[in-house]
Design goal:
The protein is α+β, with helices and mostly antiparallel strands. The protein has one domain: Alpha-Beta Plaits (2-Layer Sandwich). It has two helices and four strands. A four-stranded antiparallel β-sheet has the order 2-3-1-4, covered by helices on one side. The longest helix has 13 residues. The two termini are about 20 Å apart.
Length: about 100
């Protein structure tokens, strides 16, 4: 089983369609991700989620493609770096 990772996706572009955040949450749920939070940012959206690294990467890819109602310019996926003092107490591997 893959260790749980925490990550932030920054999605830039014309992504203001109100249907996009629920679509992102649905895609995250399909990938077994948890703690999904979608917030408006200056240049798009910020998404926080937790789960297997491969599933977080999959979410970034599907968000880059997006539904046709949005025009995604860029998706930046950043894994949190958490040491032994992290929320779950588990040592996180370096990327």
């Amino acid at each position: 089983m893959d260790p749980t990772r925490h990550a932030t996706l920054r999605i830039a572009g014309a992504v203001g369609d109100p249907a996009f955040p629920p679509w992102i949450r649905m895609q995250a749920t399909r990938r077994g991700l948890t703690g999904v939070a979608v917030e408006a940012a200056n240049d798009g959206l910020t998404v926080r989620a937790a789960g297997a690294a491969a599933m977080l990467e999959s979410l970034a890819l599907v968000c880059a493609l997006g539904p046709r109602e949005v025009a995604v310019d860029d998706v930046d996926l950043q894994f949190d770096r958490v040491g032994a003092s992290g929320a779950d107490g588990a040592e996180m591997p370096e990327d």
